[in-house]
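Bumping with the actual sequence this time:
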Amino acid sequence: MKGRINSVITGTGSYIPSRVISNHDFLSNEFYDSCGKRLEKTNQVTIDKFLEITTIAD
């Protein structure tokens, strides 16, 4: 079949970091949108949204 794209998965893996950073550690950070403008929402709201999207608690 002409124009058909094939792909092959050559490996898989995982990694568990030795250092765990909790969501609380991000409270003092600044968050920006894709245009480089600082987000107006509180950091806690941003962190809660990350948790909602990723389901990663720490």
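The tokens above came from a reply further down the thread. DSSP finds one helix and no strands in the chain.
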